[in-house]
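Input (TIGR02186 family protein):
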Amino acid sequence: MKRRAALILLPLIALLLGAAAKPSLVPDVSQRRIDIIYSFTGAELLLFGAIVYPGGRAPEKPADVVVVVKGPAEPIVLREKQKIAGVWMNAENARFRSVPAFYAVASSRPLQGLVDDRTAAIYELGLRNIQLSPASGETPEAQRRFEAGLVDLKRRGGLYVESPDGVEVSEGVLYRARIAIPARVPVGSYTAETFLIQDGRVVAAATREIEIDKSGFERFVAIVADRWSFTYGLVAVAVSVALGWAAAAAFRKK
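Output:
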């Protein structure tokens, strides 16, 4: 009986040792929180860390690193305009349940040479692999057209970025990447994901959380607008009327 138990445990021990022999990541970010104030013109986020190999030895063929910063998810309705009878009109629309408001990916080499299409889709590596969760019942062709249009709009707005050589790996064990956070980035919770890729496979992954929120007077205005929307609307109208009256009075004096 003891011999049989030992034989059963041997494969389990070998499996555990194999798992322990895999490399791991020790990641960090330069800022866990980014405050948006009236003078906010954007920020630069530094993602850095180390690759820990079993036995402390890096392989002869260095691994590659991919970092992804994304969030927060939001529903979106995308409308497509068509020229009808000489007038541009909203002809079709598509709804998406969960779209990352911001997505940036950087890699040590172009993604096409690192992983196959299946792996890229599983880990959402690259702009064409973002899970957009369509909610409407378009045909596959229409769905692909709307998805491509949505990604293109986000990319042109600076909210979707892909940098094929944005990660620098030093001595095979240290890495760093810089992600630009645009001025019009939405507030919310973000994730910074780091993937270690070796021989076309993701062998290690790690995640850090980042919070982007308004601060100071901007935060006060946002809270008032959210909690007391009716009062905020009345005050906004009153301020607009007062400014208009003051401008008119100033012109009359001239």
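The chain has a mean pLDDT of 80.
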